[in-house]
Specification:
By secondary structure, the chain is of the alpha+beta class. The chain is built from 9 helices and 18 strands. It has 2 domains: 123 residues, Yope Regulator, Chain: A (2-Layer Sandwich), CATH 3.30.1460; 158 residues, no CATH class. The strands form 3 sheets. Strands 9, 10, 11, 12, 13, 14, 15, 16, 17 and 18 form a 10-stranded mixed sheet that branches. Strands 7-6-5-4-1-8 form a 6-stranded mixed sheet. The chain has a two-stranded antiparallel ribbon with strand order 2-3.
Amino acid sequence: MNTKKQKTLLTSLIVVVLILLVIFLGLFYFNHQDHKVVVTHKNSLSKISSKNNPVADLTIKEATGLAIEYAHLKYSNNQNWNEIYQNSLVGTLEVDRYQEYKFENYTVQPENSQSLYIINKEGALTFSNDKRPGQGSVTFGDTQQELGHVNLQAVYTTVKKQGKLSIAKKISENMNLETQMATQSEKQSSSQAQQSLRSHASREQSKPNNDNGNLQPISISSKLQGTWYAAGLFASKLGDRVQITNNAVDGKTIYKVKKMPNSEKGLNEFRKKYYGKLIGESTPDGVSYIPAQNYGIDTQNYSVDTIDGVQYLMSGSTGPAGIFFKNPTDAARFTNKYKNHNDELMKKLGM
């Protein structure tokens, strides 16, 4: 009897141990599965987040296209970047990568982790992350100085807000971008060719009566004349200035053309002959102009109007680039009033 009870007790203990073991294994299995689901979910979110961020995976060409469009908006009064922009629209951009680049007045020297691209020998873009430019920043420069530094996400947001993403895409598709490191001596031939073109234009312009009176300085309305101060709205920087006289903007005379060529060949000769001169026209409320070598592309415009009873000067090209006022006090006041109310501002401007 005792032996039978002992066997029964032993059997019961074995059953209990087996049950506990099954429960333990079951809990371990489900806990392990739950842990795996959580990890997979995190990775999925990461991938979705990357797809929803169009800046994250930009190529260097796409980032450069965005940067050129941004520079056109941000530095609308910069001659170097205006010429780069006009050339970008017709697919005549040469973008080369350098270890360093010497302009006449300063040298651009990126750090080891950065990459420097020179555009048509007139502008500099320094990317902090060459392989994933959208996850870094870019520094802008012209032939004279460094202009500014901004995150690529902010560049994208600004360009998108102005409705210029399609133009930025076109610019990136049309450009010839070289990622192989170059030195300035290797690029002298193209630079010398460009200098030769400018020298030829200069010689032509210096000849007496070489245009037979075909170019005449325009007459800009007195409404536009004077010194204007930029508000920190759109792509302009608070405190920037533009000086307009009876026939010039920032000291550069604007000419009207008495007779334009009526053929593509004649137009090409016109661009070559008057290289560097500003060609434009004026109205009672505005003035528009473009470098002769880019004639036929989008122009730079200035026009006067009023907002909240105050006269302002609008700067723009393919869209609004900046608003200027006759005194810096108004420029600061309107900056504070509308910097966070872009929709209201656009409505008041009739856009």
